[in-house]
Amino acid sequence: MKELVKAFNAEEIAEYLRLHPYTIRRLAREKKIPAFRAGGQWRFRKDDIDQWSKSYPFAKEKVRSKK
Predict the structure, then answer these.
(1) In degrees, to the nearest 5, what angle opens at C-alpha 59 toward C-alphas 57 and 65?
(2) The Helix-turn-helix domain covers which part of the protein (predicted)?
(3) 3-54 pLDDT, tens per residue?
(4) What's the domain count of the chain?
(5) Range of the domain at 48
(6) Please, which residues have CB within 8 angstroms of residue 18's CB and are 6 or more apart in sequence?
(7) Contact 16, 49 (CB under 8 A)
């Protein structure tokens, strides 16, 4: 059985990456960030975003860990 993974919205990922939600949505539309649509909204998996941020130039210094 597959394990459910929490999907974050654009605002939550924007806060996590310290970017504006508009920027996150634009990157999703341009397929430059891992995302999927659910109920007409962009959704993001944290594991995918963490992996993506390792290779995306400006995101490297922006990501902070939440403890």
Answers:
(1) 140
(2) 9-52
(3) 777 899 999 999 999 899 999 999 999 999 999 999 999 999 999 999 998 8
(4) 1
(5) 7-60
(6) 62, 63, 64
(7) yes
